[in-house]
Amino acid sequence: MTRHHPDSLSLMEYSAGNLSEPHALCIRLHLDKCAQCRCQVDTLDSLGAVVMEKQPKVSVSGTMFDDILARIDSSTEPRPQVKMQPKTSLLQKLLGEDINNLPWKRQLGDVSVLDITGKFPGQNEQVVLQKLVAGGKAPAHTHRGTETTIVLQGMFSDHKGVFSQWDFVVLTEQDEHKPVALGSEDCITLSVLSAPVKLTGTFTRLLNPFIR
């Protein structure tokens, strides 16, 4: 069961087709498993269709955004007609093989990475897969920009709580954390970064000039 979800604004941008391809992928992976967010997107899609049909007569009021959010919050039942592509198929289409068999590169300590930015030509963000070995700890760090992450396998904990498979999290310059992989399975995440992370540990911060 997913506990951490995209916010309403992100779902609206996804429904409107305004997100970059990497960010849309993160939300799509979450939607595949989260009936609550699928229901919200379904409602947004329906509202968007109505707006487009009546576009010549529609005027945008100052309360329109709040009205839409209220409609979303009132929709609690998942709609079974929404058919999503299986996650395994979507990931394998992107990566070409199982995530555990990828050519991982050891970065620091318990962390391995694989930069897949090249799979998204024309995008400004960095797209990276990160693997934290079971029971391992990532170096303490903050962010120079925004990091959007979806958990693909396993789970980790940080100052915001416990994040399990298909949970969604957004971190900013205000967040400093040191993720710890929980359980007996390696934790693998997919992250979209607007800027490189910034290591904050006593010794690891010396490596910041070498981090892309």
Folded structure, characterized:
By secondary structure, the chain is α+β, with helices and mostly antiparallel strands. The protein is 28% helix and 24% strand. The protein contains 5 helices and 11 strands. Strands 1-2-3-10-5-8 form a 6-stranded antiparallel β-sheet, with helices on one face. A 3-stranded antiparallel β-sheet has the order 7-6-9, with no helix packed on it. A two-stranded antiparallel ribbon has the order 4-11. Strand 6 (155-158) and strand 7 (161-163) form a beta hairpin. The longest helix has 19 residues, at 35-53. Residues 99-190 form the ChrR-like cupin domain. This is ChrR family anti-sigma-E factor.
Essential attributes:
212 residues; Arc Repressor Mutant, subunit A; six-stranded antiparallel sheet; disordered C terminus
Topology:
Elements lengths: L7 H9 L4 H11 L3 H19 L10 H11 L12 H9 L9 E4 L2 E5 L10 E7 L8 E3 L3 E7 L1 E4 L2 E3 L4 E4 L8 E3 L4 E7 L3 E3 L13
Antiparallel strand pairs: 1-2, 2-3, 3-10, 4-11, 5-8, 5-10, 6-7, 6-9
Helix pairs in contact: 1-3, 3-4
Q: Assign the CATH architecture of the largest domain.
A: Sandwich
The main pleated sheet reads as: 6 strands, antiparallel
Q: How is the CATH topology of the largest domain named?
A: Jelly Rolls
Instruction: Using the coordinates above, name the CATH class of the largest domain.
Output: Mainly Beta
**Element order: H for helix, E for strand:** HHHHHEEEEEEEEEEE
Q: Uncertain spans, ≥5 residues at pLDDT below 50? A: 79-87, 202-211
Strand order of the largest sheet: 1-2-3-10-5-8
